TrEMBL record:
CDD domains: GGDEF (cd01949), REC_D1_PleD-like (cd17538). It catalyses: 2 GTP = 3',3'-c-di-GMP + 2 diphosphate. Its EC number is 2.7.7.65. Keywords: Phosphoprotein. The keyword Acyltransferase does not apply. It holds the Pfam family Response_reg. Residues 185-321 form the GGDEF domain. Residues 13-128 form the Response regulatory domain. The modification 4-aspartylphosphate is found at D61. Gene3D superfamilies: 3.30.70.270, 3.40.50.2300. The keyword Phosphoprotein applies. It comes from Geomonas anaerohicana. This is diguanylate cyclase. PANTHER family: DIGUANYLATE CYCLASE DGCM-RELATED, REGULATORY COMPONENTS OF SENSORY TRANSDUCTION SYSTEM.
Amino acid sequence: MNVEGAEEAGRGKILIVDDTTANIEILYQILKGEFDVLFAKSGADGIRMVREHTPDLVLLDIMMPGMDGYQVCRVLKQDPATAHIPVVFVTAMSNDEDETRGLEEGAIDYLTKPIRPAIVVARVRNHLELKRRGDLLEKLSTELAWKNRELEQLARQDGLTGVANRRHFDESLCSEIQRAARNGRNLSLIMCDIDHFKKFNDLYGHFAGDKCLQLVGELLRKSFKRAGEVVARYGGEEFAVILPDTSAELAGHLAERLRLELLAQALPHAHSEFGMVTMSLGVAGALVTREHNQEWFITAADDALYRSKTAGRNRFTLFDQ
């Protein structure tokens, strides 16, 4: 009945908690052929053994000095690390009140003495099978939850650039506008467009075009990392940045910093008037009100972006209300 021999793979692990050696020996003889058996001779020692060895099932006596079985069960069920381990009371106390109390403390079964070997083995087998199935179901549920989170993330992410996609942008802008309206806060939106991108694609090929989009996406992710900021691919070579709690002036500074960071990459573009890949940006920012809704922010930022394009590209324009 030593601990070292009680961890053989493939066999259920049973912990007997009883202050009487004779009772432990009886249960051990009944169970040893099919299960690995540990034992403890006090309530406190039983709790320690459960925490150290994580048995598959605890057979727990009720009448013990110091800490009785009810108290032991209560401690185990209140601890998230041990609450999932099934507890079966094995006791000479056979009236309905005792059994009811044991089940109310969190035990899953109640066996009365004198011990009937065939009943004990059958009950232990059933409870271990139920635990095995419950553990498997929990594992599958956890895996499914992770897969669902991964799928949800993929559904909200642009596959090429790694930034948010248009769907996530629309949802985020709507929720941020609602939050800003409730709290009386500013919100800013930056719309970015890579200059002469079609010419770049035609000249250098689609593979180079994809690399260019990925570079811009990476610059955007590195530039906007505050909580709540959302970087998205709006469509084609156009990107957008949602900036909660940000004034139009500050958003303009951030847009200019992004423009300069792309220039610093010096990505050649022979069909650009600047000889390299550049970006035009439009910035719209305001204290959110009923008039400053989602449509207003997108229209205003688009208008500012158009002005950047018509003014010669490679610049940002702040929307003038």
